[in-house]
Amino acid sequence: MPTKRDYYEVLGIDRNATDEEIKRAFRKLAFKYHPDHNHDDKTGERFKEVNEAYEVLSDRDKRAAYDRFGHGGAEGLFGRGFEGFNFGGFGDIFDAFFGGAAAARQAPQRGADLSYRITITFEEAALGCEREVTISRTENCSLCQGVGCKPGSSPTRCPNCNGTGQVRRVQQSLFGRFTHTTACEQCQGEGRIITEPCPQCRGTGKEKRKRNILVKIPAGVDNGSQMRLSGEGEAGTRGGSPGNLYITLSVKKHEFFTRYNDDILYELPINFAQAALGTEVEVPTLGSKTKLKVPAGSQTGQVFRLKGQGIAHLRGRGRGDQLVRLFVVTPDSLTEKQHQLLRELGDSLSPTNMPNPEKLRGFSQRGL
Question: For residue 75, what pLDDT is reported?
Fold first, then answer.
């Protein structure tokens, strides 16, 4: 038995061809090989081949089956003339393609997810907080509990499909009879009809409502972090579970803190007298203040670490550190007395009083 050619090759089209491209290719070849125009036996066979290819590819369901099963599936599903053909073992495959839409409609469907963006402060992200958000979502009707019927009534079985949600039709084609299963048009594949709709939701079983939801934001979140609140999305259909609510966080920049993972950096300005003689200064931390001792001879770029004063670890205990980086500020306006004192200080300083260049280089090359 000769091997059948690929249907797309027969029509000379790409596998992604549109319906219009399939129809155009068929018309051109059908005219070329039609028996009224040609009496050659080979031309007649070619015409049958073109018709067979078009019969399958022009039908969306047949084409889907052919794309998946090839000629083997096509012969089992569409071949042998279709006369009195019993689908037998191919019934499940056939329903998967042609009854799938109705089956999908009848199955429970999960509700859609919702998204919401919350803007919080740097401190709230570091230490955690609570926010109440108001969302508008679809819920099951509070009057009919999502059934869609007027209270006291119930849906009736669809007379067109006898409650199956599917209708089988027999179509006559060039090659014989073909049974096609589709979703019932009368009940839209539901298998039931609402004769007395709920006055509140008008038979949809759904209603829009606003809800206030308390969102507990854990300590340690960052800009762009996302939280999932399970079951706080849109209501499901036919008993399906509700969707989720996804919260995306936007964190405001801080006035003087900069975040590095779970550590925070604070730039501490001091004058050169404090740097030379040493001092104790008060520095801000998250939510409070603390004292920091600056030793004599401190240089710009020197970093001090305050343990446990940083961001809370999101997935663990404890907190990061606060890094305090010094920079020595040179005054840009001095009194005459200050000028005189600085001149005397400068004259009294020698190279041995200056910091080691290697030490300065170490400060400038730190990763912060």
Answer: 57
Say which amino acid occupies 252: K
Rounded Cα distance between 20 and 26, Å, is: 10
- Is pLDDT at 101 greater than 80 in this prediction? no
Length of the chain: 368
292 DSSP β-pair partners: 281
Residue 234 has, within 13 A of its CA and on its CB side, a CA count of 14
Residue 253 near residue 122 (C-beta atoms within 8 A): yes
Nearest-angstrom CA–CA distance, 94 and 99: 7
* Structure tokens belonging to residue 54: 């078009």
Determine which helix (DSSP H) or strand (DSSP E) holds 272, and give its type and residue range.
helix 272-277
Cβ-in-10-Å burial (0-12, 13-18, 19+) of 363 comes to middle
CA–CA separation, 281 and 290 (whole Å): 8
Which runs of E-coded beta strand occur in 240-343? Answer: 245-251, 257-260, 263-271, 279-285, 288-294, 303-306, 322-329
**SS3 call for 75:** helix
The rounded distance, in Å, linking the Cα atoms of 155 and 195 is 7
For the purposes of burial, counting CB atoms within 10 Å of the CB of 298, is it exposed (0-12), middle (13-18) or buried (19 or more)? buried
Task: Identify which of 162, 167, 144, 163 has the alpha carbon closest to the alpha carbon of residue 154.
Answer: 144
Block residue for tokens 């009736």: 156
Is a pLDDT exceeding 80 seen at residue 363?
no
